[in-house]
Amino acid sequence: MSLAGTGVSLKSRYEDAMREYRTAFTRYVDRKQKETGGREDSASRSTAGRDSTSARRESGDAGCRRPAVVRPPVTRFGETASGAVIDAGLLAVFSLVAFAGSFLAFLRYDVR
Asked: What global pTM score does this model have?
């Protein structure tokens, strides 16, 4: 699970990403409310029947910055590999011990 990036820590990484997004989106909403004075702008009220792009062009709001996008958490290969090295090492050691035990049992076996 650590190599695939689907371990237990995945939940906390996504929760952290959602908190960051919530903060960025709240800042965006606050900025937009300050720009419009906390009310619906007159261009969108007067152009209720038209599409929003033509209304934005007419009101001069064509360069409006979009709200933040949720960015999923990214983990580096080094971070995931460091946890997997210990697991792979333990697996190799236990495999060697099991092989050595079975080999000794084979050598001690009396065929008669």
From this structure: 0.50
